[in-house]
Amino acid sequence: xxxxxxxxxxxxxxxxxxxxxxxxxxxxxxxxxxxxxxxxxxxxxxxxxxxxxxxxxxxxxxxxxxxxxxxxxxxxxxxxxxxxxxxxxxxxxxxxxxxxxxxxxxxxxxxxxxxxxxxxxxxxxxxxxxxxxxxxxxxxxxxxxxxxxxxxxxxxxxxxxxxxxxxxxxxxxxxxxxxxxxxxxxxxxxxxxxxxxxxxxxxxxxxxxxxxxxxxxxxxx
Length: 221
Hints:
EC 3.2.2.27, uracil DNA N-glycosylase activity, 39% helix, globular, two-stranded antiparallel sheet, DNA repair, 221 residues, glycosidase, hydrolase, four-stranded parallel β-sheet
């Protein structure tokens, strides 16, 4: 497994990479990728970190699992490759973006431009076996990504955390809410959104208002 990360992340996560659980996790992932079709492609597993340098970090969005169909997952939560049909959750994210900020519905579902502006698009589990949702959960990824959230909370200031849905909301225990901003809502999945728990949360405009108050450049969502 190639652990080449952007230098800021590599330095702060070096200790985590050396822990026994992480070595066991990497052994499991190597075996899974050798024996099965897994997503995202191996070179994109740590994409969230490499597109969003630690020193530029302003916003964290937490997802649960990568998309598990062919050609979808690219290492950024909720994001898909250019030309790929938008999954239902991403459609609802873009619909909320339209109504909140008047941004035209994007043609591409690739969220790389968000990441490059300082949005960490972090799935709690970074890999998955093809067509088997949740197949790499409870293997160690959650320990790793929890430690990332905890590190950000301890070592950064005034980060905006967007916690969408019950799973993400549980991560609030890892965040110092006295020094960071936490916005919560229902999940953008159709089940939650159609019951009124997603649309109208105005998280995109609220995030930018917070960033402007902090004299930071707002995100071009």
